[in-house]
Design goal:
By secondary structure, the chain is mainly beta. Helices cover 14% and strands 48% of the residues. The protein has four helices and 17 strands. The protein has helices spanning 48-56, 118-123, 181-186, 208-218; strands at 2-6, 13-18, 23-27, 31-34, 39-43, 64-68, 74-78, 85-90, 96-98, 103-107, 111-116, 129-134, 138-143, 147-159, 163-167, 171-176, 191-204. The strands form three sheets. Strands 9, 11, 12, 14, 15, 16 and 17 form a seven-stranded antiparallel beta sheet that branches.
């Protein structure tokens, strides 16, 4: 499989060239275009209960679409709903946790399941469930704004709304941004995730909630 991510970082498009019989799994509704002869199969993924939790608790679609190239090979273009960036992550030998809505596509062998994140995830604004991606191959994630990795060796603090994904080798707790709750609520920073350990965090430079708040102020009363 060959791929190219064009129009980064504002309006990214994932272009894939599949060899004969190769497949790519994507979030339902992500297909922009494809060459003739591509096979399409719609599945719930890792089972009915996992699909339910992914849909209602993880913010993802109930189904995955798997596209398979014919004997001559094929091309397909994928894009997320919101404008923003797309990144490729090689999962060989590691698992990652992904925020709701960030999964775009992956090799067919990558497992995507919902994992309980606890009350810390709920209070952090990420919902009770995260997606865990495991297996061997490539995964493609999307987010509003640009996406960039941060290597952590010790401790690092990130605004909860800017988290796209992180290695499962990292631990995190949710806490206040300032020294007091007053500074936390009135500084505009809100809650933060305090990571510890060794691994990588992928962060988005913008959040949809910020744009929505700005747009709401312009609407007539």
């Amino acid at each position: 499989m060959q791929y190219q991510i064009s129009h980064k970082p504002s309006f990214s498009l994932l272009k894939l060239r599949l060899g004969p019989g190769q497949s790519i799994k994507s979030e339902a509704g992500a297909m922009v275009y494809m060459s003739s002869g591509m096979g399409i199969e719609t599945k719930m993924g890792s089972g009915f209960l996992s699909a339910l939790s992914r849909k209602f608790l993880g913010g993802e679609s109930f189904f995955f679409n798997t596209y398979t190239a014919p004997a001559s090979g094929g091309e397909i273009g994928l894009a997320p709903e919101l404008p923003g960036d797309i990144v490729e992550i090689d999962l060989s030998g590691k698992n990652i946790f992904v925020e709701a809505g960030a999964y775009l596509a992956s090799d067919e062998g990558i497992q995507v399941v919902s994992k309980f994140g606890g009350l810390r995830s709920l209070f952090g604004g990420e919902g009770l469930f995260l997606l865990e991606l495991s297996g061997s191959g490539k995964a493609f994630l999307s987010a509003y704004g640009s996406i960039f990795p941060i290597s952590v060796n010790g401790a690092y603090t990130v605004d909860t709304g800017h988290i796209v994904a992180f290695d499962n080798s990292l631990q995190f707790t949710v806490g206040k941004a300032g020294g007091s709750w007053k500074s936390t609520f009135f500084s505009g920073e809100g809650l933060v995730a305090n990571f510890s350990g060794t691994g990588t965090i992928w962060i988005q430079s913008r959040v949809p909630s910020g744009f929505i708040s700005w747009l709401t102020r312009l609407l007539p009363v």
